[in-house]
Amino acid sequence: MEPWINAGVALGKLLILANIVLINVAYLVYWERKLSAWAQSRVGPNRVGPAGLLQPFADVLKLVLKEDIVPTQAYKPIHTLAPFLALFVAFTSFAVIPIGPDITIADSAWQAIFGDSFSFAIIPSINPGILYILALTSIGVYAITMSGWSSGSKYSLLGGVRSSAQMISYEISMGFSIAGVVLLAQSLSPQAIIESQSGWMWNIFVQPIGFITFVTAAFAETNRLPFDLPEAEPELVGGYHTEYSSMKFGSFFLAEYANMTTASALIVLLYLGGWQVPYIEKLGLSETLTVIIQVAAFFLKVAALLFFFIWVRWSIPRFRYDQLMSIGWKVMFPLALINLVWVAVIAMIFN
Amino acid sequence: MIPLEYYLILSAFLFVTGVTGVITRRNAIVVFMSIELMLNAANLTFVAYSSFFGDVVGQLFVFFVMAVAAAEVAIGLAIIIALFRNKETINIDEINILKW
Amino acid sequence: MTLEQVLFGFFALVAVVSAVMMITGKNPVVSALFLVLNFGALSGTYVLLRAQFIAVVQIIVYAGAIMVLFLFVLMLLRPDREQSYFKDKPQMKLLAIIVGVLMLAQIAYAVLSTTTGKVAEEASRIETGTIENIGRELYTTYLLPFEAIAFVLLTATLGALVLSKKKLD
Questions:
Q1: Which CATH number applies to B4-87?
Q2: What's the predicted TM-score (pTM) here?
């Protein structure tokens, strides 16, 4: 396969997937407002467009048209860079997540373009794909630290330190939960991890403790309620993005929702069997239909998890900072270790 | 293919930059960061040789260097914090109580 | 020019420029961020060297853990503006540059005058850097150093706790 065709295919996949994520993020905000209205017995946005469907565009337009205020004490280059870094990390994590099975191509006309097999992930050739996602998560800490420091305000600084300490602490239990999954799959490649969960062997059933610690860590990593200390305006004067306005604030806002989508996709990949639909091969469907159903199943699972994220936000009160830290270090970290031992015992017995 | 020497020269440049930083800066943390840069220059040499000769030991050594660097940073920064508590400065010219 | 050469040139340029900016920057926090950029560029060169595992670990360990620690300390200590060493002795700057260049020339001479052995095949080069290969070596031949490094890290954690906690009085 020619390198430039390869690049073109990757670019095409990138365009499609990035747009799916972007539109999804825009409508996630709308969905969140509708669900919060449902939780609080209100109506929610219903003025802009039919049933308020154009509300996300109105929101973005409002943010863009606002004045961009940079504090005088701010360190300007870094102040500007931080929101873009947050967006960059949120979107690039998607590059290794396969949304469907690898397809073997038999038709010679298509073989000329795609080669012998087609993969849904943008860069399928990264072998340690899970490590790539972990590396990007650790880069995400910088967006928060930089925005907190460069704002030149002590409240932003404290908020930034608070959030980044939270992220680093939960990264540890996240890493140990992933280690359990990797131990069973015996591979770091996302596609191999999904394939190891065939039938009903989803990791959520095999290692439920790991699932709980990972989901908790995902909530903390995305700064979502019950761990959304940056949003705590009344008691903590907000967080790292207190001094941001206009589209820079909007970038943090978008990055939060994009991170939520990435985290949901990651949970689906690691614990809910990815694109797998149990026993679909028994139905005797045609190959194309099977792939379509599998891709749809992936998106359905992600949507269910996104609903879960929003549902939790409107049901559970916020944790205090010391409670958050003690849960991370004294509950979630030991649980993740227990899970790792559990998985090791299982792997020893059944292999 | 890029010759091995290119990587070695790059590594040498980074190492010399690190040395210059250690000698000329007064902020203890920046000095510390320059040491990290020197460690990384050495790592680049290890990885370059390891990759070119297909020998895994160089990359294993880099792994150990990273672990030692992490330990070193934890201890070093703790020492700097302890110094700052006592002397209210991290300027290495002013931290001279061991000097006669 | 092949893609590999272009990428090497890019990463080398970023690494060199960010290293120089790191040691000359006035603001220590900006220096730390340039060092992070430098580590990112080095990770890129590791990918070019087919050391995929080391490349990812470089980002996770150096950028994700070590430099965040530096930034925390820098942001919370807020050290006063550093008085440059060259402020009162400007002639020292020239001397520093000369010594630096001499040292670089010395190392470069040493590098270029030695003959290197036979370069390995492409397939074995790729095989060397995979996580499977590194893990196998680490847990068989080098098991003892691996355990020893675990104790070093444990000791460092305890030491950092003891050193940085407030005195109980």
A1: 1.10.287.3510
A2: 0.87
